Amino acid sequence: MFGRRSTSHHEEEKNPEQITSKVNELKAKLGPIVGRNAIYCSDACLKRYLVARNWNVDKAKKMLEETFKWRSIYKPEEIRWNTTSLENQIRHLVYLMENALLNLPEGQEQMSWLIDFNGWSLSTSVPIKSARETVNILQNHYPERLALAFLYNPPRIFEAFWKVVKYLLDPKTFQKVRFVYPKKQESVELMKSYFDEENLPSEFGGKAQLEYVHEEFSTLMIQDDIKCAAFWEQGEKQHHIVNGYSSAVVAPE
């Protein structure tokens, strides 16, 4: 249920040769990269950080180095399904992000988020401190991963929470947020334009009838955990002799 890939204005300004030049310039600024950072720093990854910083190489370098520090401490690639809990919601969110990225189709860099507000209330909402930490992680350590965020049927009382949270978002992220109200025809058409009705669950206006079975879902997530571990293990072996540079290629838009 991924949304259509959105192309930012900044990406449109760069042709493939310019993109490659900027990526190579950022590589040179960073110098040799070793270990898991080398696996993380594919050319597509470097491009995302450049886009997030409006192609400013120095700012992209600083942003990426902050991510290196965060990943070395947080170790998101080591979080597993049976070690997370909904009580630690931020860590669980990071786990889900890493899992989603692992399963993106080849060549796809962004995803759309469909956020269900059923049962939401101010009493069950996350504290502002947690919201700030969440926004910081998603914006600064997963840049340009969001195509669009659909907030599905938020209650009127959410407006008070949103008035605070929206100021934590950078302008580019803010522009990617869409409010969806199932009783409004405009919202119905919006969902149809971004999601395949046949695969979209009925509770979101689609035709798919899905049933959540925890045991089956857990089995799938554990399989993904095995795939994740293999990905990083294999990557470390490959990058051990590549002098710190990823061999991934930037796919021009």
UniProtKB/TrEMBL annotation:
Pfam families: CRAL_TRIO, CRAL_TRIO_N. Residues 90-212 form the CRAL-TRIO domain. InterPro entries: CRAL-TRIO_dom, CRAL-TRIO_dom_sf, CRAL/TRIO_N_dom, CRAL/TRIO_N_dom_sf, PI_Transfer_CRAL-TRIO. GO terms for molecular function: phosphatidylinositol transfer activity. PANTHER family: GH16843P, SEC14P-LIKE PHOSPHATIDYLINOSITOL TRANSFER FAMILY PROTEIN. This is CRAL-TRIO domain-containing protein. It comes from Cucumis sativus (Cucumber).
